Amino acid sequence: MENTIEFDKRHGGPWDRGSADSYYRRSRQPHYFVGGTYHSEEITEDQMTEAEIAAYHAGFDDNEKYGCFKEWD
Q1: What DSSP letter does each residue of 7-44 carry, written as one string?
Q2: Running DSSP on this structure, what letter comes out for residue 5?
């Protein structure tokens, strides 16, 4: 049995922002939004808990693993 951690994948949350940064090929910069992305307070890495930072990196790593990237035409 594989050990897995469930992350909150809400839009604007740490997992979502990590996944989006990877998708758009941005560098890792842990952050998230309290509410909707770009429509609420942004929380930066220095304000994040270890669990929130782990969720950000998990989202980034998941997208890297599956190779789903924005195609710039």
Answers
A1: ----TTSHHHHHHHHHHTTPPP--EEESSSTTSS-EEE
A2: -
pLDDT digits (tens, 9 = 90+) for 7-65: 889 999 999 999 999 999 999 999 999 999 999 999 999 999 999 999 999 999 999 99
Return the exposure string of 10-46: e unless at least 16 CB atoms fall within 10 Å of the residue's CB, then b: eebbbbbbbbbbbeeeeeeebbbbeeeeeeeeebeee
Report CA dihedral (34, 35, 38, 39) to the nearest 10 degrees.
-120
Structure tokens at 23: 């998708």
